[in-house]
Predict the 3D structure of the following.
Amino acid sequence: MKKIPYGRQNITEEDIDAVSKALKADFLTQGPTILEFENSFAKYVGAKYAVAVSNGTAALHICALSLDVKPGQKVITTPITFVATANCVRYCGGEVVFADIDPETYLLDIREVRKLLEASPKGTYSGIIPVDFAGLSVDMEAFRHLADEFGLWIIEDACHAPGGYFTDSKGIKQNCGNGVYADLAIFSFHPVKHIACGEGGMVTTNDLGLYKQLLRLRSHGITKGDDSYTNSFDFANSEAGHDSYPGWYMEMQQLGFNYRLTDFQAALGISQLSRANNGIIRRRYLASVYESAFKLMPFILSQSGFINGHAYHLFVIEVKNRLGLYEYLRTRGIFAQVHYIPSHLMPYYRELGWKEGDLPNAESYYCNCLSLPMYPSMTDDEQKLVIEEISNFFK
């Protein structure tokens, strides 16, 4: 029986050729292919700067570090996300405060965020991390207005949404991660994401200062360049007669990490990026087919539907007897998934004081949600089988 997973990478001969070429080149890491990938990705999302890193979690971590998250600072995020979104705050010693989701969109509810902010003195919170969950863009313009009102920064977790967008109040399409409203945005290149590098991540921003900070943080806090050195010239250069820092000189100016991406991963990313638009078109087509089929099925309590600008990393339905359907589909070779167990109910966050009943919309969503197969190489016949088997189960 052929297996149909909820997500799958699509590796072509062009991808293999690109990686093979990179493996035969002079650099396996820290070479020119990294910058090429960064520039191409920044152009794709419409941001000024991009910094490639080893994975999406590393991207989140250096974002929090670059924004100077300190022990005790409070940051608001959603519970319906992969735990890395919240964990990056904890890595810095900050305090994570979860706000409930909008039950219609599954996104962080801006009304709940406002309630938290208004219930405390200004300065209590330092930032917000909204998530473009499943590929649906958050209204970043609205969150920017709220953040500015309370003096907060924003990290947009756009791991699910390269190629996604929302339309702002001026009627302009704003790409996820373009840096117009968020201080920083992050992406993941895990195999089931839109662009696969095996592992990998990207941070985008329009802020030159943050960009330079990110570059240092991803590579041990080290910088190379006369304009940023702080040690004296005399210390750095022991040779008489030289009027500049020697080529070998570098400085570790802060505590950073080894979060670098390799050149051959970047080569794969460039190749994958070249057909990213075709992947989005296919994902949106699959979503439209699901939407048309499920609107006729009364046992589907809710679904993602078809939404303009949605990047459709996931297509989520809500059903009663979710466990029964999940197990039945597995017997038919269809491997649906659940996204996500609410972060605030993970044992780690329970130990910090979170409990059932704190975020009722997120918890209700979790009881019924199921992510169906959604990936560009999924065939029409495979999708038809998924729809038929869901109907058969409830019949």
In short: The chain has a mean pLDDT of 96. The chain has three domains: 4-221+254-275, 222-252, 277-394. The longest strand covers residues 49-53.
